[in-house]
Amino acid sequence: MPVTLRDVAQAAGVSRSAVSRCFTPGASISDKTRAKVEQAASDLGYSPNALASSLTTGRTKLVGVVSNNFHNPIFLEFFDRVTRELQGRGLRPLLVNLSDETDPTQSIRMLQQYSVDAVIVASSTLPVSFATSYVEAGMRVVHSFGRLTDSPKLHVLGIDNVEAGRVAARELLRRGYRRVGFLAGPLSATSTRDRHTGFAEELGRHRDVSLSVSYAQAYSFDAGRAEMTRLLSMGPAEAYFCGDDVLSIGALSAIRDAGLSVPDDVGILGLNNMEMAGWELINLTTIHNPVDEIVRGSVDLVDRMLSGAETAPQSIAFDCKVVERGTLRPAP
Amino acid sequence: MPVTLRDVAQAAGVSRSAVSRCFTPGASISDKTRAKVEQAASDLGYSPNALASSLTTGRTKLVGVVSNNFHNPIFLEFFDRVTRELQGRGLRPLLVNLSDETDPTQSIRMLQQYSVDAVIVASSTLPVSFATSYVEAGMRVVHSFGRLTDSPKLHVLGIDNVEAGRVAARELLRRGYRRVGFLAGPLSATSTRDRHTGFAEELGRHRDVSLSVSYAQAYSFDAGRAEMTRLLSMGPAEAYFCGDDVLSIGALSAIRDAGLSVPDDVGILGLNNMEMAGWELINLTTIHNPVDEIVRGSVDLVDRMLSGAETAPQSIAFDCKVVERGTLRPAP
DNA sequence: AGAAATTGCTACAACGATTTAGATTTGCCG
DNA sequence: CGGCAAATCTAAATCGTTGTAGCAATTTCT
């Protein structure tokens, strides 16, 4: 039913290779035959079969976009940006949701079956082993929002979570908080541990500052709410650095619900700066996660890998800055 | 570099067809050769090339997921559900972001090039012509969140927007509101017009009720905020039916900002019931859009179309119910 | 003008699978 | 054990494209 290159060749009265060359940029073809071919092609409504061509070229222009964060609004921003960037370069996102997947083998097989040219793993909670096993399976991989290391096995782009912890600590100190807490996400994520490291390190320089740490069950509103409710019942700190904006909003809810006010009674500092953090009803002071730049960097890297440049794996750190809104008291 | 069916055949000492049959369910093969083949396959780490097989079978198991709603949080719920459902049936989502696309031709070509087995168009703002031109290009299409009609050219699943308008009207009337407004999304969307139709129709049965209508520039927080600010300056209605939750939250913001209170001074009724509508800081009374069921229905339909059952195009309506929270006053 | 280099074309063999047709083997029965 | 049908195999054609030879026509050089 669909019209093939063969049909076009026949209609234009040329060989199949001539038609093929007509559609491959930079190939040698005369204006005369090009005209004939293009005429025939548009008459028949021909468009080349990308899958068939991938058989011989070995390139599919398919890029696996793998994530387990389908509940965090900031990932909608990610999906928006990453699809646009890929499309802009003629690449196609093959979306993989591994929310209930604990083992990479399945997704590896699937991505190999579709011979994706590269994979973008987008997650801050996935164990490092996930992305590395993609690499070991022979794929080109970029890990966005991953953990930065000195000797990376693959390309990693994201904020430095240790640094983010330090930034958070400095911000709270600057505003005169002395009894502070870290309301973290699940301990299983390396990002959680890294942030804790930086946060504790920076606070540790001050003798008069106390730190309490607790872990929410998940990066979710409910988990943040539950954990903050528990904290309030035990006598809360003056301010909390939360592992995530959604978690923060859960915490805010619990605080208001307890009849306390933010930032007068308790301060909250989020992380990510998702769009909604700026909505007045929420108005969350938070650390900005530069999704746009990370996406652009990631897709750039993919593009470069596909053009043959085999660069050594590197970690690329992005700056994270505090966005001031209404959930921390002003500096004294 | 990658291991092919040929390699496996050689290693197992059988013909290529034997290996192929071993991987096609329901094919005739003896236990003995099956064992040999499976041994060889797992030794070599073979996984069949889905693209190559699609060449002869004509099926790719690729499903285009096309949307222009990458800014509305409810679509993150959609992406989560739809990817899971597709994956659960061995189908692969090829994501297409047509946020800045006004013309279907490009995406049609692209989807044809990758010979997707079917397309799910997910949007309530895309003109009907978009989905129908996919159909005309010969693709199997399901339109989720589309406009229901009596004689559809394609499968459409979603709430009946006219009915949603009626439901909204009845809810406001029940609570004793008499001067009401429709704070709609852009007029270009058919969903906007349908909701208006139902809303006005139901209100029209009551002589003592007045209706004002205005249109936000987009389905966004800022647009909702701006429009409500304008409305407040001209003397607002008692309650508004908003075209969308995000729009509603923008409106809420403007109202609070003006020193008025919800629901005492102004009532707000949203539409969609996205997850955040339930967060206490927002606590929005809204009409539930059953995303889960719509997705399940859509993927079911895709699945059925792919199993050969050529059913006539049909519109499937889903119920929409009001979820009561805190932005409408209680019935008198 | 004749040799050499360049262009532009066609024919044909891949790419990695499936599928058809035909050849073998196996199982069953008297 | 012979005969017949069913089960299972192999070889070859095919899917729609690209890439490599090789040939013909044209251009360039001396």
What report would you give on this structure?
The structure is a homodimer of 332-residue chains. The mean pLDDT of chain A is 94. Chain A has twelve helices and twelve strands. In chain A, the strands form two sheets. The first copy, chain A, has a six-stranded parallel sheet, with helices on both faces. Chain A folds into three domains: 5-48, no CATH class; 62-159 and 290-318, Response regulator (Rossmann fold, 3-Layer(aba) Sandwich), CATH 3.40.50.2300; 161-289, Response regulator (Rossmann fold). The radius of gyration of chain A is 25 Å and the shape is elongated. Chain A has 332 residues and is of the alpha/beta class. Chains A and B meet through helix 4, helix 5, strand 2, helix 6 and helix 11 of A and helix 4, helix 5, strand 2, helix 6 and helix 11 of B. The structure holds a DNA duplex (30 and 30 nucleotides).
Largest sheet of chain A: 6 strands, parallel
Which assembly state applies to the chains in this document? homodimer
The residue ranges of chain A in which pLDDT falls below 50 over 5 or more consecutive positions are none
Strand content of chain A: 15-25%
Counted up, domains of chain A total: 3
Please state the second-level CATH architecture of the largest domain in chain A: 3-Layer(aba) Sandwich
**3D shape of chain A:** elongated
Helical residue percent band of chain A? 40-55%
Relevant terms:
six-stranded mixed sheet; 12 strands; six-stranded parallel sheet; 12 helices; DNA-binding; homodimer; 332 residues; 3 domains; Rossmann fold
